[in-house]
Structures are given as structure tokens and as C-alpha cells.
Amino acid sequence: MTECERLIAEGKLPKEFLEPEQRECYVPTELKKLWALQIDLIQQVKVIAERHNLTFYTLGGTTIGAVRHKGFIPWDDDIDIAFKREEYNDFLKYAQEELEEPYFLQIATTDKYYYRPFAALRNSNATCIAGGDSRLPCNNGAIIHIFPLDGYSDTKKLNKFIKVEKLKNRAAVSRYHNRNRKNFLARIAYAAVTPFILGFKSNEKHFLRHERMCTKISKEDHELIGIQYAHFDTAVRRIVSNKHAYDSVIMMPFEYIEIPVPVGYEEILNDCYTNFRELPPEKDRVCKHTWESEPDIPYKEYCAHKYGVIYDK
């Protein structure tokens, strides 16, 4: 039984949802299956959050989808959510204690091959591979991303910290993606430099230190909040808004469930996008991600067969 078949049998997925349809672009059944698994992952988050009185928020394209489409952006293939830093830390703790197979909380301390400075929630009975991860023995199940929202102030000291952390986060990525570089000399150079950037720490130790530093900073009084430290790009101000935009949530329809959108979503989206309510030209309605997905096959089976990945026992 596939995961979608299981969800239908349990009454958690309307069977007709999987039918292909024409929205603002064509949505095939395979994408609908991935959406269904991601909606189920959101429901797993909701159960834990409600049990422990935690609040999470939609982010970015997921918020646009809720506001503009009452569901997924038809050419999108992921869900992004966030907790404020202290509640993010609490969620990670509870999720590790309470999730059961096939669900898996993926962070550096639960998956030694995971190198991103934010969490993922996976369904191990499906496959969803990010670009460059196909040959890594990490969990490559169906996925949603879970980010921490951190406080931010535009100060010289904090901006320096952000730049250093993003350099270290990039080095953590390089540790695993270096094998995919075509230029042999570049592979040698990155392999030599990366340990110095990370202070000869493992990815797990790097990210534990990173989490402690970000938690300490977020306890300070900041007027801005957002995904500031848990990213790789070099922009100092990225996806930050007034903290009051996250004072509460508004429940909005999202396909066949409801999801919590931050009360200040207009301000947040205007900070990040231009004319977010307008549809892009038809030629630009294409997915920006490089997922390789197979919703009906467990990732271990798929990756072992296609890429020869050998997993730790």
C-alpha cells in the first residue's frame, strides 16, 4: 500500500484530490500525490503544536498559496513553515519524542548526513530528493521545511555574525556536495579549506553551536524577526519583518485543510515580493525547485536501486 492509499483508507485524503486538473497551469496526479503527503506532514506538525501549545506560521510561497490560491501555488512543490526560535527548539524536542514511522524529524543530530541549518519533516515511505542529495545516505523522504524565526537588529556586530554563520553554513554544505564538483582542483581546495572554516568541528557540533548562538540572540529585544541566520545566501537582511507581524495567526483554507498564516502576512509578503497578489506571466509559471520525487516508493528503495546508495544499519 502506498502512502496516498493509506491516507485515503484512513479518511485523511479525499480520493478525488489526486485527479489531475487545470488550474492556472496543469497539475498532474504525481504532483498532487506529493502535495497530499506534504499536507499530511503539516497535519503531523499541527498535532504536536496543539498538544504543547506551540504556534507555527506559513512562510513565503506557502503563504502566497493560502492567500492567493487557497492552496498550493499550482507550479509549486513544497511547504515552508516556521516557529519562533524558542518554540522551534521545543518543537524539535517534542517531535523527536513523539513522531512514529514513517515520519522522521531531520536535523543534524538525527541524520548525520543532513547539512542544513533548519529542520525538515519527512515521510520515509516516499521519495523527494533535493538537488545534489541523490547519492547521500540521508533521509530523502517526502518533505516539508521547518525554519526558526530569529530576532534581528541592523547592527554592525550582528551583521558580522550573520555573514560568518552563513559562511560556515556554506562550508557544511560543501562537506557533502564537494564530491559532485566536476573540477578536481576545486574539490581539493574545498576539502582543504572547509575544516578550517568549521574549526575542525563535525556538522553536528557546528549546528549545535549555531543553535545555541541563535537562541541567545533571539532572547534579546529586537524589532525585526525572520529567517535570518538559518540560510546560506549572503544577503544580510533576508525575509525579516516587524515582529508584530507574527503576534498571532489567521487560519486560512489550504486545499482540504486550514493552515495558520501570520496576522501580518500583507507586510511580510510585501517585504519579500513585488505584487504578490498578481499571477506571473504564463511562461514563468514553472517550478523553481529541483526535487526528484516518487511519492509511491520509499526513498531507501528508490535511491538504492537508482543510485546505489548504501544506508547505515
Could you explain the architecture of this structure?
- There is one protein chain.
- The chain has 313 residues and is an alpha+beta fold.
- The chain has a domain at 3-155 and 243-307: Beta Polymerase, domain 2, CATH 3.30.460.
- The chain contains 9 helices and 13 strands.
- It has helices at residues 3-9, 29-51, 60-69, 85-98, 156-177, 184-197, 203-218, 265-272, 299-307; strands spanning 21-22, 26-27, 56-58, 80-84, 103-106, 119-123, 127-129, 142-152, 224-226, 240-242, 249-254, 257-262, 292-294.
- Strand 1 (21-22) and strand 2 form a beta hairpin.
- Helix 5 runs antiparallel to helix 7.
- The chain is globular and about 55 Å long.
- The model has no long low-confidence stretch (mean pLDDT 88).
What's a quick, concise take on this entry?
The protein contains 9 helices and 13 strands. It is of the alpha+beta class and 313 residues long.
